[in-house]
Amino acid sequence: MDPGVKFTVLSLFPEIVDAYSASSIMAKAVARGAVTYRSVNIRDFATDKHHKCDDAPYGGGAGMLMLGEPLGRALEAVGAVPKDAVAQASAETSADVQRARVVYLSPAGRIFDQALAREFSRERELILICGRYEGIDQRIIDAWVDDEVSIGDYVLSSGEVAALAVIDATYRLVDGVITAESLDEESFSDGLLEYPQYTRPEVYGTLRVPEVLLSGHHEQIRQWRLCKRVEKTLRLRPDLIRRGLEARTFNAETIALINEFESPSD
Ligand code: ADE
C-alpha cells in the first residue's frame, strides 16, 4: 500500500495533537497504514536543568519567543534537512535529496486552503512546528521552514490547534482514506460550497424536507443541488465565484446559473 503522508509534529504540548490522532477516522487511517503519525516534545531537546524553551526577544517587546536551539535539535532528531543542505548536496552530487516539507504554523503565514491541503496530501512527510508564546526565532524559519502557514486571520494561543486543522484537512485527502464520491461532492471540490442536506424525519416542527429530494428523480435532484450550491456560494462566498470565473473552472451549466442569479430575467 502507498504509505501516504507521514505527519511529524514538534510541539511543547504533543499530547494535544496525540489525542486527536488516536481518535476517530484518523485513528483508523493510522491503523490501516494509510497515514503515519509521530510527535516529539521540543522540551526534551532543552539541555539546561530547567528545560527552558523560551526567552525574551532581542530589541524588547511583549512576551516570550521559543528558543531556536531546542527546536533546531528537535528538527535534527526527526531527520529534517536544512534548506541549504539540499542546494549544496544537489550541486555536489546532482542527486535529489529527499526532504520532508517543514511547515511552521503561524498567524503570519500564507492562508491554508483546500488547494494547499491537496498539495500536502501528496507529500511523503510533513514536519509541523507548533509555535507558542509570541512565536519562534526567525533563524529557525530561515534555515528550516518551507511554508509558514496560517489557518485564518485570527491569533490562537496554541499552534497545536492550527496543526490539528492542517492534519485533519490533509489526511482525509490521502488516497483510500475517504471515498472519492464523498470528496467529489463536498465544499470546495469544484469551487462551490456544498448543497444543503436533510435526513429523517420528513417534517421537523413546521419545516419540511424539500419535495424534490423525496421525488426519486435523480436528474432533478442533481439540478436542484447545483442550483443551491451556486445560490449559497454567491451569497456567502462571492470571492469563490469570482475566482472560479477567472480561472475558467466552472462548466457551462454552472455559469448559466450564476448569470441567472446575478441578472434574473423576470
Ligand atoms: N498560531 C497562532 N495563530 C495561528 C493561526 N491563525 N494560524 C496558524 N498558527 C497560528
Write the layout of secondary structure elements.
Elements: E1 6-11, H1 14-21, H2 24-31, E2 36-41, E3 54-55, E4 65-66, H3 68-77, H4 83-93, E5 101-111, H5 114-121, E6 125-130, H6 138-144, E7 147-150, H7 159-171, H8 180-185, E8 203-204, E9 207-208, H9 218-236, H10 238-246, H11 252-262
Parallel strand pairs: 1-2, 1-6, 5-6, 5-7
Antiparallel strand pairs: 3-4, 8-9
Helix pairs in contact: 1-7, 3-6, 5-7, 9-10, 9-11
This protein binds adenine.
Adenine binds at residues 105-107, 131, 150-152, 154-156, 159, 162.
User: What's the helical proportion of residues?
Assistant: 40-55%
- The proportion of strand residues reads 15-25%
The CATH topology of the largest domain is given as: Alpha/beta knot
- How is the biggest beta sheet arranged? 5 strands, parallel
> Please, what is the average pLDDT?
94
Strand order of the largest sheet: 2-1-6-5-7
Euclidean distance between termini CA atoms:
56 Å
CATH class of the largest domain: Alpha Beta
- Domain count: the total is 2
| Overall form | elongated
Give structural notes:
The chain is α/β, with parallel strands linked by helices and 266 residues long. Helix content is 41%, strand content 15%. The chain has helices at 14-21, 24-31, 68-77, 83-93, 114-121, 138-144, 159-171, 180-185, 218-236, 238-246, 252-262, and strands at 6-11, 36-41, 54-55, 65-66, 101-111, 125-130, 147-150, 203-204, 207-208. Strands 2-1-6-5-7 form a 5-stranded parallel β-sheet, with helices on both faces. Strands 3-4 form a two-stranded antiparallel sheet. A two-stranded antiparallel ribbon has the order 8-9. Helix 5 links the parallel strand 5 and strand 6. It is elongated and about 70 Å long. The mean pLDDT is 94. Bound molecules: adenine. Residues 105-107, 131, 150-152, 154-156, 159, 162 line the site of adenine.
